[in-house]
Amino acid sequence: MENLIEYLDESLVPLEEKVKEYLHVERDIRLLEVEVLSLQSMKHDFDPEQNIEQQLTEQQPQNSLNDKEQKLKELLEKYKDLQQEVIAMLPDQNKFVELNLGYGPSMVGYFTVDPETRTPLEEPVLRVVH
């Protein structure tokens, strides 16, 4: 019979922490993408009759957009770095490793071959099942 608590192995804690950080950054990217898209959808119709205060108020979303786009770029770079770190910590390719992300067994794996069709993937994929 298979050991059902293998995912609680203490040696997996560094990998678990790295995967949690990876998932946290992934969530932050998704939230920030929504904010950026919302700001991009705002239209800036210039009206010379507006007073300066109104113009400054309207320019603020553009500045905010630039800040958020920069933050998104930084998060995407961090995400790629974390992905590479997680991949480096995995013992095998094309195989899931069970670990504990805080709510029971989860799995993480790095795949170069599609597990269902056994065909090579165009780009390798890090998969986290939680």
Number of DSSP strand runs = 3
Note the run of SSEs as H and E: HHEEE
Q: What is the helical fraction, as a range of percent?
A: 40-55%
- Low-pLDDT residue intervals, each spanning 5 or more residues: none
Q: What is the arithmetic mean of pLDDT? A: 82
Radius of gyration: 22 Å
Q: Which class best fits the helix and strand makeup? A: alpha+beta
Number of helices: 2
**Strand order across the largest sheet:** 1-2-3
Biggest β-sheet, characterized? 3 strands, antiparallel
Strand content: 15-25%
N- and C-termini, Cα separation: 23 Å
Shape: globular
Helix-strand layout with pairing:
Layout: H1 13-41, H2 52-89, E1 97-100, E2 105-113, E3 120-129
Helix pairs in contact: 1-2
Task: Please describe what this structure looks like.
With 130 residues, the chain is an alpha+beta fold. The chain is 52% helix and 18% strand. It has helices at 13-41, 52-89; strands at 97-100, 105-113, 120-129. It has a 3-stranded antiparallel beta sheet, with helices on one face. Helix 1 runs antiparallel to helix 2. The chain is globular and about 50 Å long.
